[in-house]
Structures are given as structure tokens and as C-alpha cells.
Amino acid sequence: MEDPLVPSACPAPLATASGLGSEDTIVAIATPPGRGGVGVVRLSGPRALEIAGSVIRASHWPPQTQRATLGFFHDPASGRLLDEVIVVAFRAPHSYTAEDLVEISCHGAPVLLAYLVECCLKQGARPAEPGEFTLRAFLNGRMDLTQAEAVRDLIESRTLYQARVAAQQLQGSLSALLTPHKQALLELIARLEAGIDFAEDDVPVSDWEEIARGLDSIRAPLERLAAGYEYGRIVREGLSLAIVGRPNVGKSSLFNRLLNEERAIVTATPGTTRDLITESANLDGIPLRLVDTAGIRHTQDEAEAIGVRKTFQAIADSDLRLLVVDASEGWTPGDAELLERLLPLGALLIVCNKCDLPRRITPELMVQVTAPEAVLGAEGGGPDVAATPRTPGVVWTSALTGEGLPELKRKVREVAAPAACLGEGGLLTNLRHHQLIQDSLAALGRARTAAEKRVHHEMLLLDLYDALHALDNITGATTTEDILGVIFSTFCVGK
Ligand code: GDP
Fold first, then answer.
1. What is the rounded CA–CA span in Å between residue 14 and residue 335?
2. Which of 6-20, 432-446, 481-495 has maximum average pLDDT?
3. Starting at the edge strand that comes first in sequence, how are the strands of the sheet with 277-283 ordered?
4. How many whole angstroms from 354 Cα to the centroid of ligand 1?
5. Which residue segment(s) compose the domain that 83 sits in?
6. Which of 56, 229, 395, 419 has its CA 20 to 30 A from that of 475?
7. pLDDT of residue 108
8. Which CATH number does the domain housing residue 221 bear?
9. Ligand 1: does its nearest atom lie under 6 Å from the Cβ of 109?
């Protein structure tokens, strides 16, 4: 008799059954292209040690594993010495790929590294495909898919903070977070399967409330995880910030302050910053993509009109908007018009700049201007505005003296990373993962509706399996080779 707690349609793990076997020994240069102090050639596969041994001479071979051994690379054609190298050998399964693996550190001359690879190829190795070392690590069960993807993120990280998030995922933080929910789902499936298979044997069928409760307890943490994706995406891709305002309010100056260098053209003539300028800065580890926009005003000038159109596109596409106003000039109808247009677009901060000059905008006025009822009552408000009754934050700055800049950065960061999302463990940074969590949630939602309608358990199970498969695809238990192809093709050779 089948174990009633093992679901009958439980998916078979694909990893070890994959046709991508590692009979071959692969070789690649693992260090970036170009000249350097050291360049590393990596071999992995059953003949790694043998092939390395045929091109490198060392005082003893095979070298002691996981120890640096001095060796010499001689040109097999002439027998002449080409380089003095350091060899480190790893025996399966105690290596990155879980196969026999050899790393040969040469001096980083591209011609030398290419020739060493060529010599290994002549000895029967095959050139590695992009990401193939990590793919083998995955296929050999050394890491799951989230960890393999974390390798890529770690290599691509541009800030230490990004590296830290990727390193945590490399440690399996996301998988660890998902495992209990997958387990709970599996148990629910098992209970329902048992209820169906043994209905005649009087095995009690779970009651509907219990099923609904079980579903809710799985959905809630997944929903929290999905909600944190926006922050995860920002950590991974950076936050895009559009700086908007009437001409001459100090947008370019603020932009430069945020970048800490002079990039945008600063001038006292209105309307001169015609082009969008995109630059990257690093805000406490989060890459910031700043978009300085052309001054917005009604204009007859064609070039400037193009700038204004581009401005609105950039504004709509950004994660956060800064509306810069000139505090020394006062709150103008132009500022009010811009506020009205920006409010429906999402996260917004109002920056009252030029605070070093006598102020004609008071905090009280800003409270009045940003109060939801004032905003809703504003002329031309329309239903879109009413749909987003959020109050924009206000910051007081002087781009000239730097006053208020730390506060501005803090507020930007706060918008990018709401306190609730700040835990780095199990942060969802990857679009693929996010879509799969959404798929899983959608299936759980369907199951919940089905439970409410008390449809037959077999129908409910279909949705539960969909939900489980989506989660499995994150870590890789049921991943098809198509998905593997997509993921590993984004790696570079030698990783
Ligand atoms: P944009 O047209 O909005 O990009 O404005 P700019 O950054 O080009 O600045 C317009 C003028 O205002 C320049 O002369 C700046 O030096 C000046 N300016 C910008 N920010 C400040 C500020 O905080 N205080 C003062 N006093 N002048 C500023």
C-alpha cells in the first residue's frame, strides 16, 4: 500500500536525472579578460587532474588537495618553460562543482592563459560554456538554483550592500525561507490526497475551515516576501530618481550634490539643462540612478519641448520623484501644477531648496499644500489624484551650502527601503523568483476560492500542485532544462 502521507503526483527531482551529465572535462579562463598580476585557468571533470598533470610539471603529482603547489608550465611543442604557476587541486565531491577540479594560477598574460587552455583542449578537455562550472555545481546537488543565481548576482554586485544580500542568498537564505512553506503545502496536499485515496476506509477528510486556515497560513508569508520584492529589485538594479521642478530652482545643483561631482551643466539662465542626464551614485549601498530632467515650462522652442516630453516619460518611469521648489521665491502656481501632475505617479518628495536665502515658503504652508484634502480639492484633481491620497514628504535643503542633504539622502533611502523590508535574509531580488512567488500565490488564491465553494478535493489539489511547482521552480527541484538554459546563459565563461 502507498504511504498516505506521500502525495501520489509528487514531482520527481530533475537535477540528477538531467541529460547534462559531466563525462566531459571542461576548461576555461576564470579571471576577467585582460592583463593582470594573476590569471586563473580552471578545469573540472573526471580527467581534470590527469589533463592538468600533462601540461604542468610539479615536484609531486597529483598535488596534495586543497593546498597550493608550485608547478611549471612548459610548452609541450618545444619543451621550453613558459611560466611558473600555482596549482590547487580539489577532489570530488569537495570542490565548487563537486567534481575533480583544478585551478592553475599563472601570471595574467592573455596569450599565456589562452595557450594553456589550448594545451588542455589538446589533451581532451572541452571549452566550458558560460556558467557551466556553476551549472555543474547545481546539477551535482552542490547548490540549488537560488544559490547558483546568487553567484551571478555576487559577481555582478556594484556595492558592498548588494554583495552582502547576494552572499546571504548564496548561503541558501531564500531556500531556507521557502522550505517551511513548501513543507506546509506538501502536508496539506498529502492530507487531501489521503482523504481521496482512502475515502472508503473512513480516513477523516479535512474539514473546509481547516483547509482554508492552512492555505492562509501559507499565503501570508509568501505575500510578505512578494511585497519585499520592490525593495529587493531596488537593491539589485538600483533606484531611479527623477528630479523635477521649474527652471532655475536648483535641480542641477542638487543633482551634482547627490553625485558629489560636477556632471550636469549648472547655469543661471532658465531652461538650459535640455537633455536628460542619467548618472549613478551610491546611496548607502543602493545604486541610485539619477535622472536630471529638463526644466518644465510651457515653451515654443522645439528642442526644449522635446526635453519636456522626455521629462514626463522619465518621471513616470522612475521609482521616486523629487519635486524641487525654490523656497526663496515662494510656492508658485507652477509648483502647484507640477505637484498635481506628480501626485498620481507614486512616491514623491518635495524639496524646498535655496534655504540659505530668506525663505518665502513656510513649513505651515507646506503642510497646507500637501494635506490630502488640499490636494484632493486642487483644481483639475480628477479621479487619479483621489486614488492616491498619500502625503509627500518635505525636505529643506540648500544645494549651495549642502544644508539638508543628509536628510534628503535619508528620506530617499527611506522611500527606497521601508523599514519593514530592511531584513536582508531571504530578500527577493530576482524577477524570476518574484514571478514564481506570484504564480504560487495565484494558485493558492484559486485553491482558497475553491475551498470556499467546497468543490471536490481533486480539483483543489490541481491548484495546490500548481502552487507547489511554482515554489519548486525557485529552488530548482522540478526545473526543466529550458529554464536552466535561460539562467546559466547569463553567466560568463569560467564561472
Ligand atoms: P535648475 O535649472 O533647476 O537645474 O537650477 P540650477 O541648479 O541650474 O540652479 C540655478 C541657479 O540657482 C544657479 O545659479 C545656482 O547656483 C543657484 N542655486 C541652486 N541651488 C541653490 C541654493 O540652494 N541656494 C542658492 N542661493 N542658490 C542656488
1. 59
2. 432-446
3. 277-283, 286-292, 239-245, 320-326, 348-353, 393-396
4. 7
5. 16-144
6. 419
7. 94
8. 1.20.120.430
9. no
Residues 69 and 87 sit within 8 Å (Cβ to Cβ):
yes
> Does 205 or 408 have the greater pLDDT score?
408
Average pLDDT for 246-251: 90
Tell me what the pLDDT averaged over the chain comes to.
80
Average pLDDT over residues 428-445: 92
Ramachandran area for residue 250 (φ above 0: left; ψ -120 to 50: alpha; else beta)? left
Domain final position from 370, 396, 416: 416
Give residue 331 CA to ligand 1 midpoint distance, Å: 16
Q: Is 50 exceeded by the pLDDT of residue 383?
A: no
- φ/ψ of residue 132, rounded to 5: -70, -30
- Establish whether residue 404 lines the binding site of ligand 1, counting it when its CB lies within 6 angstroms of any ligand atom: no
Tell me the CA–centroid distance for residue 352 and ligand 1, in Å. Answer: 12
| Residue-level pLDDT at 17 | 34
| Ligand 1 center from residue 310 Cα (angstroms) | 22
Q: Flag whether 32 is in a domain.
A: yes
The reply to whether 384 and 466 lie within a common domain is no
Distance from C-alpha of 70 to C-alpha of 235, rounded to nearest angstrom: 42
pLDDT > 60? residue 271? no
pLDDT given at position 199: 54
What is the distance between the alpha carbons of residues 419 and 90, in angstroms, rounded to a whole number?
43
Return the minimum-mean-pLDDT range out of 325-334, 353-362, 456-465.
456-465
- Determine contact, residues 247/271, Cβ cutoff 8 Å: yes
Closest CA to 216 of 472, 447, 454, 461: 447
- Whose CA is closest to atom 14 on ligand 1? 268
**Residue 188 to residues 81, 212, 287, 307, Cα–Cα distance (Å):** 66, 10, 42, 57
- Is residue 222 located within the same domain as residue 349? no
pTM above 0.70, yes or no: no
243 and 198, same domain (yes or no)? no
Tell me which of 301 and 428 has the higher pLDDT: 428
Atom 22 (ligand 1) nearest CA: 354
pLDDT average, residue stretch 459-484: 81
Does ligand 1 have an atom closer than 6 angstroms to the CB of 273?
yes
Whole-number Å distance, alpha carbon 254 to ligand 1 midpoint, is 8
All three cell numbers of 494? 569560467
Q: Tell me how many domains the chain contains.
A: 3
- From 266, 324, 328, the mutation candidate for ligand 1 (largest count of ligand atoms within 8 A of CB) is 266
Residues 218 and 365 in one domain: no
**Residue 271 to residue 291: CA distance in whole angstroms:** 16
Confidence check: pLDDT of 202 > 80: no
Q: Which pLDDT score, from 0 to 100, does residue 13 have?
A: 31
Query: Looking at this protein, which amino acid is placed at residue 365?
Result: L
Single-letter amino acid, residue 490: T
